[in-house]
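Lines hold sequence, tokenised fold; shown next:
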Amino acid sequence: MDLTEIVADVAEALVAVDSCGVAFKEFRPGVGPYGEPQLLRAVAKHLNARRSYAGAVRTKRTPDMLIPGQWALEFKLARPFGDNGHEAENWSVNLLHPYEGNVSVVGDCLKLQRLNGPERKAAVVIGYEHTPPRISLAPLLDAFEVVATNVVNIALGPRVQAARVGLCHPVHQQLVVAAWEVLP
């Protein structure tokens, strides 16, 4: 199973979660406001219903999602705007914080590098935008690659990306799933 297939499947699972119209906590309906753990459980449920995953996808603390023998995946969310439509404070820290720890994708890449096991490793970002984007995620994804490779010296594979439009949330109207293999 390659990373392109996983990214497309995660994007489709997110659309399925969005289409159910269930609100997360007190937020408006749609997939955008979900917290990371709740979102990953919902994505894993959808992936496990697919024949190609055969019920093997597990959510864990480290990595966030495991496809045994194939992929160890760490996820981060990127939401420039909150459920209320106001620009979120510090939302880009989830990608650009260049230090160890669980705050950023950079930290996730460092954690993946230390993870033992036969699985290939990848960092995945799930981001939400307006249609058309009021704040595009593209510069942030580019900046992550620069920080990870040129500042922290993490070897990344090429970005794999899928986008979906037409989500039901009035703020989180489209999604982007971007992933990079974290190379040894």
In short: The chain is about 30% helix and 20% strand.
